[in-house]
Amino acid sequence: MSIKIGVGDFKERVHEELNNEFMRGAVRGAQERLRIKRLDEAEQLGNWEEWRSLGEEIRQHVLNHLDYYLYELSENVAKRGGHVFFARTSEEASQYVKEVVQKKKAKKVVKSKSMVTEEINLNSYLEEAGCEVIETDLGEYILQVDEDHPSHIVAPALHKNKNQIREVFKEKLHYSNTEKPEEITAFVRKHLRNEFLTADVGITGCNFAIAETGSITLVTNEGNADLVMSIPKTHIAVMGMERIVPTFEEMEVLVSLLCRSAVGHKLTSYVTAITGPREEGEADGPEEFHLVIVDNGRSDILGTEFQPVLQCIRCAACINVCPVYRHIGGHSYGSIYPGPIGAVLSPLLGGYEEYKELPYASSLCGACTEACPVKIPLHELLLKHRQVIVEREGKAPFSEKIMMKAFGLGASSDMLYGLGSRAAHSALKPFTKNARISKGPGPLKAWTKIREFPAPEKERFRDWFKNREGGKQS
Amino acid sequence: MKVSLFVTCLVDLFKTNVGKATVELLEHLGCEVDFPESQICCGQPSYNSGYVEETKDAMKHMIKTFEHSEYVVAPSGSCAFMFKEYPHIFKDDPIWEPKARELADKTYELTQFIVEVLGVEDVGAKMEGKATYHTSCHMTRLLGVKEAPIKLLRNVKGLEFTPLPGAHLCCGFGGTFSVKMGPISEQMVDEKVSNVESTGADYLISADCGCLMNIGGRMERQGKPIRVMHIAEVLNHRG
Amino acid sequence: MTGMIQNRTSFLKNIAEKLGRNPITKGVHRPSYKHTPQYEVLKTATRDELVSVLASQCSNIHVQLMETTADHLAEQVKAAVRSYGGGPVSVWKDERYAEYGLTDLVEKEWPHEQTLVHVWNDDLGEENIRLSEKANVSIVFSDITLAESGTVVLFTGKNKGRSMTLLPKHFIALIPQSTLVPRMTQAAQIIREKIKKGEAIPSCIQFITGPSNSADIELSTVYGVHGPVKATYIVISDR
């Protein structure tokens, strides 16, 4: 199982990414545009806070009855002739898909964008089985050709500029036109069209499964998912187990929230609800349909204080407003899930050992919580992770633990605070010049690396208050 | 009206003028201000780093400090917000939860108190110059106070108020974040400084000392002439 | 033929355990949601107003809108196809073409002027896909049309291929005014009504909004990534 991307540790990755001028400019530009578009659409729609509350209510209801809805979904998929495989682990999921593909003697698979298939390393399993796997989402295709990783969950190739793309296509695909996006796109269209038409198996994700009808909903602007599920003879849909709604009525609410929050569209160009394989006599659509429902650590989040993170509809609105992501980009997170949602989810799916810095890579500004269309309290969950890291995992640095304990003592004792605060002025005098500290000791060192720090004043406020004429205190 | 001042540890030690201005301003508006001496710190620095148990004593200390207060007013959105968090932190404690709730219910950030409780939007302040305002994240998003400071600033005579581009972006303070994640915080504060400079303002005003120390400290290091002022100091300026 | 279900029992038992109870397989009802803003959108819009909304949305989604009456539909369709560079044309085997007076065009006029017409017919099997691939324009009737988003809803299935509208470079949707509803909310209700009446849900329902597009390269929008490059909606105003 791997959500992990990249090498090195967090600080090393951040250092490298902070020097990636193009990425930073691209992310800044993307954040500006997508944030404004989301806000505009929210305003146009009206009653946005009610919509968010409805989205939250729907997701919470489903999570609290997840077993019921998955049962209903599987019954209804099977009634329509589709096969359902429940996979506890990522290995089970990938192994099942591999077996289906092998049984079909498939040589070529076309795929539409699916985060969960990246989570379970599906492509490597299939390639091991001698199958060619072709990503058809434009951004994912670019990354596949360049052997790179996604840096954003909706716009995965955000960090790439058109010249880089042109170079890669020239080198690997003998592309001979310019870097103009229209020309690159026309080339990809032609190139991939042939792949759609000759693929043996189509693999998609699932934006929302609909329990009442046994349907899965695919949301794209490109229409690639529609081609993936209509031309190859076998269609395999892989879904994170929480990506489910009771009926079409809830699906439309969440799709409305998703499209506006993700890309500032009322609806994307293609929202398609598929139910089972093709009906008797239909000339396109798959003859065989498989739905793989993946747990991969999600059930361990149920029933815990982190359960709200499973409300996520993968819109990336949080990523688009995060002031930290803005500077460090997606690859810094070392996970296919970056930004605020990634900082909450990655330690849960990938472990604290690998991801213990992510919850601290936040000023808890709350922009993510404010942007989330289904009201996940993201910054609160980041804080909860810190509490877990300190108290349950015992992964906080020893020196910090000592400092915090001392702080706790000092902040609850008048005597200790009095001693410490009165001494502060003289203790820091050696470092003070013109009432400023420019090179501080201990915890002040990191601060004063780039900022001046005000020296503690000789007279504390409380002393001034006490001494003022007619001063009142209690 | 009797008001207990929750001055905050940053003001007590490093920005005493903000405390003084707050007291004078509230008195000017007709309040009787007292200062419960046993107050120390709301606990954010350790709480926000994940140290809940270590912070509980400090929080209980604050709850006891303000037990007899009618109104608790703080010149800090983040510290006022921290008091609002206390009832959730003590939610499983039948003794302290009601006390925490009582404190949370009577706590206000300064501009929030002036506008919502005193019902005043013009405090009679006067200050010449061009200013821009930094909306601190905890105050706007978490405490939910967005309009009050703007309303008050717009009534300061002589003050040319210009909006700050990228106001929604965090300045990079985030308490211990600024030192734990130094390189990232640096990028964030630099973008903030650049936005502040682009306004051509003489003053940067904010309602949170953490943000002011962060942005102000960076600008001072870079030798930039923009002066940072806490909103209490501006509103207390009458000449 | 019922499909196979594997590993369900232990999988769901684990979920129920984590939720602190036994597994549930029946008796859960959708709650009465506290907020229902979706019903308010375009609640009181008349049909003319919905057409107006659709028209203005078309300019946002890169769709050319034409309005006509049933009598003039054939000539408008012919003109639209010509503007896209002519045939070949792919249509479904669907009695609405005859109902709306397009039989002559499809069966006589186009063939007469050497415009190839492919009628999607299940008997042709896979050949349909190859023929659509070679077509320049696909033309279908919308089953439900969402004014707010400019979306045509297609209930694909027998003799109505799901890939047909994606393969050619140009897409024309014929929209009888009577198919207009405010937004997806009503479409979802219509679909659920059908299910309640015992109708089998189509194996593929497509909600199509304008041409295929992507912003994956430097956030620059490009059209016709895998599907159509251009789209025209023809609203038939008297039916």
Please provide a brief summary of the model.
The complex is a heterotrimer of chains A (474), B (239) and C (239). By secondary structure, chain B is an alpha/beta fold. Chain B has 13 helices and 8 strands.
Describe the structure.
Chain B: Is involved in L-lactate degradation and allows cells to grow with lactate as the sole carbon source. The complex is a heterotrimer of chains A (474), B (239) and C (239). Chain A contains 22 helices and 13 strands. Chain A folds into 2 domains: 285 residues, Rossmann fold, CATH 3.40.50; 70 residues, no CATH class. Chain A is α/β, with parallel strands linked by helices. By secondary structure, chain B is of the alpha/beta class. Chain B is built from 13 helices and 8 strands. Chain B is globular, with a radius of gyration of 17 Å. Chain B starts with a strand and ends with a helix. With 239 residues, chain C is α/β, with parallel strands linked by helices. Chain C has one domain: NagB/RpiA/CoA transferase-like (Rossmann fold, 3-Layer(aba) Sandwich), CATH 3.40.50.10420. Helices cover 30% and strands 23% of the residues of chain C. In chain C, the strands form 3 sheets. A 6-stranded parallel beta sheet of chain C has the order 2-13-8-5-3-4, sandwiched between helices. Chain C has a 4-stranded mixed beta sheet with strand order 9-6-7-10. In chain C, strands 11-12 form a two-stranded antiparallel ribbon. The interface between A and C is large, with 112 and 91 residues.
